[in-house]
Amino acid sequence: MTHKTQSVAYPYFVVALLLFGLQVVMGLWLGIQYFVTVPQSVVDVFPFATARAMHTNLLVLWLLLGFMGATYYLVPEETGTDIAWPKVAWAQLVILSLTGVIALVGFFFGWTQGKPLLEIPRPLDVLVVIGALMFLANVGMTMFRARRWTAIQGSLLGGLVFLAVMYLFGMPFYRNLAEDWYYWWWVIHLWVEGAWELIAAAMTAFILIKLTGVERKVVEKWLYVELGLFLFTGIAGTGHHYYWLGAPKYWLWVGGIFSALEPLPIALMVWDTWRDVRHRTTPLRPRLTWVYLVGMVVLHFVGAGLFGMAHTLPQVNYYTHGSQVTVSHGHLAFYGAYVLLNLTFFYLAIPRIKGFRDGEYDERSGHLGFWLTSMGVVGMSLAFGVAGVLQSYLERYLGQPYMVAQDPIRFWMAIVAAHGVLVVAGVVVIVKHLLTLRSVTVQAA
Ligand code: HEM
Ligand code: HEM
Ligand SMILES: [Fe+2]
Predict the structure, then answer these.
(1) In terms of domains, do 194 and 246 share one?
(2) Contact at 8 Å (CB) between 128 and 152?
(3) Residue ranges in 301-363 assigned as alpha helix (H)
(4) With 332 labelled, which of 27, 159, 192, 307 sits at a CA distance of 20 to 30 A?
(5) Beta carbons within 8 Å of 325's beta carbon, 6+ residues apart
(6) For residue 327, which atom of ligand 1 is closest to its CA?
């Protein structure tokens, strides 16, 4: 850590990690309901849809808080100055956390806008916008005052502004359902396959520079290529969600072709990291941060690139649309690309914020947590995938009713839940490890 105000990142990481724990517990509860018949009295009070809204909104909230904390850590080092208004950063965290708590309690009482992943009702949206504006103003002012621009900052700020603007399209009420879905995808797709990829590229470039001391020019050259490709393929690729919602026919072509190109920039990232790792003669230290980084790059490619590609052509999506195949891809992509990105950053930043150099803490439970969680999510996604293919065949090809098809799918959902237990255990280990990181020398004393 080079600047005092960077430490405001830490409370963001703490809140994010606690919400991560709650998110996966909710996930497990959802998974169990696919093979255990829950008593009607429980369903009446706490329906599946409510738990699902909590699971997914917690995911989005903690990932965003993680990105914001990472930004507050990263920007001072890139610009060479302190955060413009550290107190505003604190206030923003309080506002966003409170909004999150109110939203969760609200969901419980059925207060929801109904759009998946964006169930937060309109009055709370306003609070989110206020928090986002405080954030952008703070980051923008810090960069503006410093007057030192790097490609990392540019990509990060671009991604953050893009993210905030897209959120606005999900807020209005559209009378026409087709229109509602059309703009819903501007948020969901253009977030994870546009804005968030810019943020991820910037954070990854920063992490690589810090870990390897590699020349900035080398990393930045790739950043430009990847960013260009992400925007080129990701924006037109939105069409892979317009196949069946009443949009014009040409989207079948545009969506199919451009989204099929989307794995390209992600593969470039894998190749780029591999090139970097292969040429190193010095050992990769701290080992744990590298494990998370390489895990992220690989699972980002598999989950988003390969699993995304598998159902992106209209000829395939016709059968798999909205099935457990989608859920399989959703889990592995979110985990590989953004959960692991956040965790990698936390492992980079927290030891530095706490003031001991990396490598001086006991890494062991961090490794255990990584493998438990990653094996759990990979196994869970494979099981969701089998359930999804079965579902597509039974429902869409044989034309079986939903509940009839559920019977043979049940077994695979039990496998999902078994892996969910591994995920929850792994997340508990990681959260505990990150929140109690201590310098080894201090421990010995
Ligand atoms: C890293 C951890 C996790 C991430 C990133 C994650 C992400 C997600 C996402 C993005 C969705 C929405 C999927 C869609 O709309 O297609 C979802 C739903 C769901 N998740 Fe998770 N989840 C995680 C952990 C878990 C765990 C541990 C379980 C336990 C089995 C679980 C079970 C479920 C279930 C059953 C659904 C609902 C699927 C449906 O509507 O049929 N998740 N999760
Ligand atoms: C990190 C990046 C990505 C993340 C986090 C992600 C996540 C998700 C999630 C959560 C959904 C389900 C939305 C819902 O219906 O509730 C989804 C749908 C979809 N994704 Fe991705 N995705 C990513 C990248 C990609 C890429 C690169 C491709 C294509 C190559 C792709 C192809 C698709 C398709 C075709 C659907 C629609 C599935 C359907 O029709 O039901 N995704 N994605
Ligand atoms: Fe998409």
Answers:
(1) yes
(2) no
(3) 307-310, 314-320, 324-333, 340-353
(4) 159
(5) 310, 311, 384, 385, 388, 389, 391, 392
(6) 16
pLDDT of residue 365: 97
Asked whether residue 230 carries a pLDDT value surpassing 60, the answer given is yes
Q: Whose CA is nearest to atom 8 of ligand 1?
A: 331
Q: Whose CA is nearest to atom 15 of ligand 2?
A: 322
Same domain? For 121 and 162 the reply is no
Q: What confidence tens digit (pLDDT) does each residue in 153-208 have?
A: 999 999 999 999 999 999 998 999 999 999 999 999 999 999 999 999 999 999 98
Is residue 443 in some structural domain? no
CB contact at 8 A, 84 and 141? yes
The boundaries of the domain holding residue 413 are: 284-438
Same domain, 289 and 430: yes
**357 alpha carbon to ligand 1 midpoint, in Å?**
36
User: Could you identify the atom of ligand 1 that is nearest to the CA of residue 419?
Assistant: 30
Name the domain count of the chain: 3
Ligand 2 site, residue 311, Cβ cutoff 6 A: yes
Query: 389 C-alpha to center of ligand 1: Å?
Result: 17
Amino acid identity, residue 434?
L
Please check whether residues 294 and 393 belong to one and the same domain. yes
The structure tokens listed for 273 are 């990291």
Ligand 2: distance of its center to the CA of 5 in Å?
Answer: 37
445, part of any domain: no
- Pick the residue whose CA is nearest to atom 15 on ligand 1: 327
